[in-house]
Amino acid sequence: MNMRLDATHAPTLRSWVTGANDPGGDFPIQNLPLGCFRRPGESARIGIAIGPHLLDLAACAGAGLLDDALATVVTAPTLNAVLALGRPALSRLRAQASALLAADAPARPELLVAQEAVELLLPAQVGDYSDGYASIEHATNVGRLFRPDNPLLPNYKHLPIAYHGRASSLVASGTPVRRPWGQRCSGEGPPEFAPSMMLDYELELGALIGPGNALGAPVPLASAEAQIAGLCLVNDWSARDIQRWEYQPLGPFLSKSFQTSLGPWLVTLDALAPFRVPARPRAPDDPPLLPYLDDAADRAGGGFAITVEASLCSAQMRAGGMPPLRLSRASFAGMYWTLAQLVAHQTSNGCNLRPGDLIASGTISGPTPGSQGCLLELTHSGSVPLELPTGEQRRALADGDELTLRAWCEREGFARIGFGSCKGVVLATDRAV
Ligand code: MN
Q1: How far is the CA of 132 from the centre of ligand 1 (A)?
Q2: Where residue 187 falls among pLDDT bands split at 50, 70, 90?
């Protein structure tokens, strides 16, 4: 089992930081997610979220409050050097930050920065990005829309399907998404080049990698989690009309590469330890897995009980002071493939991962109504529009729509922890139609 608990997980632990002990908050002392931030006019720094504040890690290092190995890497503007040290270093950082922030430690408000006073940046400089297809409900629902007779392709239960994403267009939460142009073809007549009319989001979580593996040295499933520093929210914006025309035979290309948004917080695997669950059991008639994708530890504890949610607020809703409308809620525990299987599969050919690489899960959908993690599924490819509280209808995202992703973990006997949010508003295309 992957549930290694220590004093940093104790539900009774409190912090001296004002606002950090709210039981409904995302960032109690039991969480301590890592992120990057920038004060106006200054350069980027690394921090740890605590309540509504950030613990400034370069300031901690300057005050001699971190061990030497950590002090040399936390002054960088991104997390990559921290991730390169691997999970033991992240565990030490967690223990040292927890001790600094605990209620029985002296208050050091000079080490804090208010989150609302800074810009939250991408948590790491991502060199390579791939995106999975690990929810069998998502794969089945989407397959049915694209291929009604043959929804789940024969490879699905044998290997974790993924595509290579585009790292250059990963952006921080809060960055607007510009409606892309592309080729689309209705099937009647020739294709046209036009703004996408079927812009969508995908509700996902992603693993940030560290320390990485050497080229030619696959990561076995048993050590795959040593490569996963933690998880963050991911929105894989998707242009469905462009995707439908381009995706065969090599998979999505320009329908996804125009932008992908990342949440600001890397919630470490240590923080997630109390919320580990068995991998989703395979059905009795599912084919046996090849040995490199199967082991007892992954079956027993490869899952994460993380609740994920997407909500939408149209421009008209915001003007009317309405709250966002929840579009979906699902559990990450229901994924067909584990993150460790994704890592083992991706490196099984000898491909190397590097610190800060991103492996996203794919859209997180569940089996029940209201648990589908994208509009393609929720609207049955636009044939059943969603009704907003204003009376507006949505078959796809409209200009001005703001999408918000959230994720959190709750379990009896443990402090609730969360991932913050990943937001983006849709802007009209900036080219003449
Ligand atoms: Mn995706």
Answers
A1: 7
A2: confident
pLDDT at 3 over 80: no
CA of 244 to the centre of ligand 1 (A): 14
The Cα–Cα gap between 147 and 18 comes to 54
335 has which bridge partners? none
Give Cα separations from 133 to 7, 136, 305, 335, 382 (angstroms).
36, 8, 18, 9, 21
Query: Ligand 1 mean position to 97 CA, how many Å?
Result: 34
Joined together, the tokens standing for residue 383 give: 């044939």
Q: Could you tell me how many helices (H) and strands (E) the chain has, helices first? A: 11, 26
Other Cβ atoms within 10 Å of 355 Cβ, number: 23
Q: 3-class SS at 78? A: coil
CA of 389 to the centre of ligand 1 (A): 28
Top-confidence residue, 386 or 430? 386
DSSP-derived 3-state class of residue 276: strand
Distance from C-alpha of 278 to C-alpha of 297, rounded to nearest angstrom: 9
DSSP notation for 345-378? HHTTTS----TT-EEE------SSTT--SSHHHH
Between the CA of residue 295 and those of 186, 223, 292, 415, what are the distances in Å?
A: 45, 11, 8, 30
How does residue 1 score in pLDDT terms, banded at 50, 70 and 90?
A: very low
Centre of ligand 1 to C-alpha 194, Å, is: 22
Could you identify the residue written with the tokens 């036009």? 194
Q: What is the pLDDT of residue 76?
A: 97
What is the CA(237)–ligand 1 centre distance, in A?
8
For residue 285, the one-letter residue type is D
Q: Is 362:336 a contact under the CB 8 Å cutoff?
A: no
β 417-427/177-178 pair status: parallel
Residue 227 burial (C-beta neighbours within 10 Å; 0-12, 13-18, 19+): buried
Sheet holding 177-178, edge to edge: 177-178, 417-427, 402-409, 307-313, 325-331
Cβ–Cβ under 8 Å, residues 246 and 255: yes
Q: What DSSP assignment string belongs to 299-338?
A: HHH-EE--EEEEEEE-HHHHHTTPPPEEEEEEEGGG-SS-
pLDDT digits (tens, 9 = 90+) for 55-65: 999 999 999 99
pTM: 0.97
pLDDT, one tens digit per residue, over 123-136 is 999 999 999 999 99
Please list the active-site residues: 138
What are the backbone dihedrals phi and psi of residue 254, each rounded to the nearest 5 degrees, phi first? -75, -15
